[in-house]
Design goal:
- This protein is of the alpha/beta class and 328 residues long.
- The strands form two sheets. The chain has a six-stranded mixed sheet, sandwiched between helices. Strands 5-4-3-6 form a four-stranded parallel sheet, with helices on both faces.
- Helix 8 runs parallel beside helix 10.
């Protein structure tokens, strides 16, 4: 394996650090899904994770190392929702203050839950304001440290623990995976899991899944250089709309990932309905993207064994109700 900013040893150390606090989420194989696609599908259900998404893993791994004497103002983060909740919950567990820069159009449930976990929400306009500039100002004013949403070795290593658990579980069942599909925004989850997957099974292909029109990571993998999205909003997958891959996540992606695919909002809605009706799982739009790619055959599944993450379950109740009832 090439020299990378995150190693399997870092992920294993993160797993030990997280062990007392994490939910070891289940890996689900369901006959209804297998029959639908003609292969074996294993879903790592991070929608059942603490705070309802995988983000707690990376946030806690990073924040647990923060020296409160050096940073009396605690931590600052910027996020549309799940990283916000992860940072707020992790900071509270570690006895630190947290301030989260969140877009004004973030789902209300994610804003409310971020506050409930102890975070202070600082709203901004994602089309007109620079969230990173706001976060830097807060760090300077409060003597706080910034917790990146994805492009940080400690955050990536924490997210990679989900892949460590997933690969151990499928191996326990005697399964060798042909492919793993991972929802991607900036790439923290995908890159961390890619390291874990390739360490356990070098022959397993790793694919990213993004919303149609926001596939900067897939285009970056294809071109060999970081690409940017033209828009910053416009998909129901609010958690999967980073502007461009991070330096660390792109380095890992180009070394370890096969490529990327994209799914439409309608395909994501269909996947959310399937998860609810057949699997009895609640998935938010961004959390269901990899399932949508499996159901639509964006990556071949028939006669193969593949795994994917349901990366979050923090669906807006009103939006979720409309989707599962097929309301206009």
């Amino acid at each position: 394996m090439p020299t990378l900013p995150v190693t399997i040893e870092m992920i294993r150390a993160a797993a030990e650090r997280l062990a007392p606090h994490i939910v070891a989420t289940p890996v689900l194989e369901h006959p209804a899904l297998n029959k639908q696609v003609g292969g074996r599908v294993f879903l790592k259900c991070e929608n059942l994770q603490r705070v309802g998404a995988f983000k707690f893993r990376g946030a806690y791994n990073k924040i647990s190392k923060v020296d409160p004497k050096a940073y009396p103002g605690g931590v600052v983060a910027s996020s549309s929702g799940n990283h916000a909740q992860g940072v707020a919950a992790a900071a509270t567990l570690c006895g630190l203050k947290s301030a989260i820069v969140m877009p004004k159009d973030a789902p209300p449930i994610k804003v409310a839950r971020t506050k409930a976990f102890g975070g202070e929400v600082v709203p901004y306009d994602r089309e007109r304001e620079d969230r990173d500039a706001i976060a830097r100002r807060l760090c300077e004013e409060r003597k706080a440290i910034f917790v990146p949403p994805f492009d940080d070795p400690d955050v990536i290593a924490g997210q990679g623990t989900a892949g460590l658990e997933m690969m151990a579980e499928v191996a326990r069942r005697g399964v060798k995976l042909d492919a793993v599909l991972i929802n991607v925004s900036g790439g923290g989850l995908a890159s961390g899991i890619a390291v874990a997957v390739k360490d356990a099974s070098p022959a397993t292909d790793v694919w990213t899944v993004e919303p149609a029109g926001f596939d900067d990571f897939a285009r970056s993998l294809a071109s060999g250089k970081p690409e940017r999205n033209d828009r910053l909003s416009g998909s129901i997958c609010d958690a999967l709309m980073a502007e461009t891959p991070g330096k660390h996540t792109f380095a890992i992606g180009t070394a370890l990932m096969k490529g990327g695919v994209s799914v439409t909002d309608d395909e994501v809605r269909d996947a959310m309905r399937f998860a609810f009706e057949e699997l009895k799982l609640v998935a938010e739009p961004g959390g269901a993207a990899s399932l949508a790619a499996i159901l639509t055959g964006k990556v071949p599944v028939e006669g193969r064994a593949v795994a994917a993450l349901i990366s979050g379950g923090n669906a807006d109740p009103a939006q979720f109700a409309k989707i599962i009832t097929r309301a206009a």
